[in-house]
Design brief:
Elements: H1 12-22, E1 26-34, H2 40-52, E2 57-63, E3 66-74, H3 78-86, E4 97-98, E5 110-114, E6 135-137, H4 139-145, E7 151-155, H5 159-162, E8 165-167, H6 178-189, E9 197-201, H7 206-217, E10 223-226, H8 229-240, E11 246-251, E12 258-260, E13 279-281, E14 290-292, H9 295-301, H10 307-313, H11 317-324
Parallel strand pairs: 2-5, 6-10, 7-9, 9-10
Antiparallel strand pairs: 1-3, 1-4, 2-3, 8-11, 11-12, 13-14
Length: 341
């Protein structure tokens, strides 16, 4: 009986209807914490029971190295949620990154998964100590140091994230995953490990924290990280009246896809080249490629990435389902080398 309580029993469509019927404003937030967890599976089950009772929805990863959570919950349940976190010693007073833009349907299921690591890094060096992180910077300190000529500012996110928004002058690796970025960045920095200010940033801080420890391990002498990532930076910048040096949108891994940080549009439609920063997944479910599409191309191709996919998407659902049988659905991201229509 208990196993039924440790998994979702509603489909995304059913949950969406319940959210609409409840008419309770929801808050989207995220947090992470590196901490040794002896029994991730037991911790996962306890979290599911506690958070399901608070109507929490989201994507949470638990591993021996800690927790990474992106979720939403009814706004009136936030005090109870904070109280629950306070009852977990290693999460007491953990910083909650409240989303810049809110959407009641940012998440439609509660998924808490046990993983080998909360951030897949590909690091197998047993001498690596993830606790020896770089210097944490607040928004004001970050704004100052990135103006220093000795600073190399590096975006630790994937190419499809940084494409629609980034800090001015940042190095933006053309990678699909965090594990790819570590080697690419190290190789690209060349000499001067002791002289350069290596400043790292990401969405909420979790990738920068591990990356800063990695680059220190690799011999970089001056490593810094933006504390709390882009989300916390914007909060501090607004509260303190600081200049916002982030251009465009902040990519997020939920139903919102992105948050508007500034009015700048720094990317272009992948199909026609017109200015656009609207990420979509191809309407053909067998493709489902993530790409940037302007309104005109969306209307022309019915939200698909090509004429071929538009034709498939126009077929009856039962035929599409037959066509997809036996085919996996790997993550696909638009690359300039991708076939065009």
């Amino acid at each position: 009986m208990q196993s039924l309580l440790l998994r979702n029993t509603l489909s995304a469509a059913e949950r969406e209807k319940r959210i609409e019927a409840a008419d309770r404003p929801r808050i989207t937030l995220s947090f992470y914490k590196y901490h040794s967890i002896a029994d991730p599976a037991a911790f996962r089950d306890a979290l599911f029971l506690a958070w399901d009772s608070l109507d929490v929805l989201g994507r949470i990863y638990v591993a021996r190295e800690g927790i990474n959570a992106q979720l939403s919950l009814p706004a009136d349940n936030l005090p109870a949620f904070r109280e629950h976190l306070q009852g977990l010693p290693f999460l007491r007073n953990v910083r909650l990154n409240i989303a810049v833009e809110q959407n009641d349907k940012s998440f439609l299921k509660l998924k808490i998964k046990v993983r080998r690591k909360i951030v897949a890094d590909g690091i197998e060096d047993e001498s690596f100590d993830p606790g020896k992180v770089g210097v944490r910077l607040d928004a004001n300190e970050f704004n100052d140091i990135i103006e220093d000529s000795a600073t190399v500012l590096v975006d630790m996110r994937n190419h499809f994230e940084s494409e629609i928004g980034h800090f001015r002058g940042a190095v933006r690796p053309d990678v699909d995953t965090f594990r790819e970025s570590l080697g690419v960045i190290e190789a690209g920095l060349g000499d001067g490990k002791e002289d350069k200010n290596l400043v790292l940033y990401c969405t909420g801080g979790i990738r920068c924290e591990k990356a800063s420890a990695y680059f220190r391990h690799k011999g970089f002498g001056k490593v810094f990280q933006l504390e709390g990532g882009i989300i916390e930076y914007l909060r501090q910048a607004k509260a303190q009246g600081l200049e916002n040096k982030f251009l465009g949108k902040n990519f997020v891994f939920d139903g919102r896809m992105s948050e508007r940080i500034s009015d700048h549009i720094v990317s272009a439609c992948h199909l026609c080249g017109d200015p656009s920063d609207n990420h979509v997944n191809c309407g053909n479910r067998a493709c489902h490629m993530l790409f940037i599409q302007c309104r005109r191309c969306s209307e022309r191709l019915a939200g698909c990435c090509s004429e071929a996919c538009r034709e498939v998407d126009a077929l009856p659902p039962e035929i599409q389902k037959e066509m997809r049988k036996g085919r996996g659905a790997p993550k696909k991201y638009f690359k300039r080398t991708a076939p065009e229509e």
